[in-house]
Design goal:
The chain is mainly beta and 210 residues long. 10% of the residues lie in helices and 39% in strands. The strands form five sheets. Strands 1, 2, 5, 6, 11, 17 and 18 form a seven-stranded mixed beta sheet that branches. Strands 7-16-12-13 form a four-stranded antiparallel beta sheet, with no helix packed on it. The chain has a three-stranded antiparallel beta sheet with strand order 8-15-14, with no helix packed on it. The chain is globular and about 65 Å long. It contains three helices and 18 strands.
């Protein structure tokens, strides 16, 4: 699958609507009880990029981006303004935001992830598209320096250490990240008259698995 390492204009995604989607299969039993199961290990996010358009210049920027991606052909990065940090939206990423692994004295590669927890439930989301310049990493509570102590693959979210973290040392990280998505349509229909009257085009965007 083709993927372009370029972000959809953040000023256009700011006004979008969207969020996580789950798939749950529910079977109603004859005794009135239910059996619930899901074939998805991870949630999938959907957005509507059309709701962020505020002017005809925005429409032109959207069409240019759409054409350059070949419609649904190539994926791209998307900033989800409601969830783009390893911490709370009001804070700045810190080196101890997320536990991404534990050293064993041999392993050098660790994948970025973000934990979501509420009550007895918890979910760990893989982070595949971190944002350059925002990564903070620590081993055993000691901050590490990028390009000296570790490197980051911004296309996969893999942190690689120059020296394996020692056995039992917690590996933590803080970061900003994008969502890998594609357009969920091969057609954009825009009427200038309707747009100026407040009728915004529907431009669905859906998260992709990489």
């Amino acid at each position: 699958m083709g993927f372009h390492e370029i972000r959809f204009p953040a000023n256009l995604s700011f006004g979008s609507v969207g969020g996580p989607e789950r798939r749950t299969e529910i079977v109603a039993l004859t005794n009135g009880f239910e059996q619930r199961n899901t074939p998805w290990a991870h949630s999938r996010r959907r957005y509507d990029a059309g709701l962020g358009l505020r002017s005809l210049d925005d429409v032109a920027a959207l069409i240019a981006f759409f054409e350059a991606r070949g419609g649904q052909l190539h994926g791209f990065r998307w900033k989800d303004w409601a969830d783009f940090k390893s911490c709370a939206p009001s804070r700045e990423p810190a080196q101890d935001d997320q536990l991404i692994g534990q050293g064993d004295g041999r392993q050098t590669e660790f994948a970025l992830s973000k934990a979501y927890a509420s009550g007895p439930g918890a979910y760990r989301r893989p982070v595949l598209k971190p944002v350059r310049g925002t990564i903070r990493v620590a081993v055993g509570g000691v901050g590490k320096v990028e390009t000296v102590d570790f490197t980051l693959d911004e296309t996969s979210g893999i942190v690689t250490f120059a020296t394996p973290p020692e056995h039992g040392a917690e590996v933590t990280a803080g970061f900003e990240f994008d969502v890998p998505v594609r357009f969920d349509t091969d057609r954009i229909a825009v009427s200038v008259a309707s747009f100026q009257a407040g009728d915004l085009p529907a431009v669905p965007v859906v998260e992709v698995r990489l």
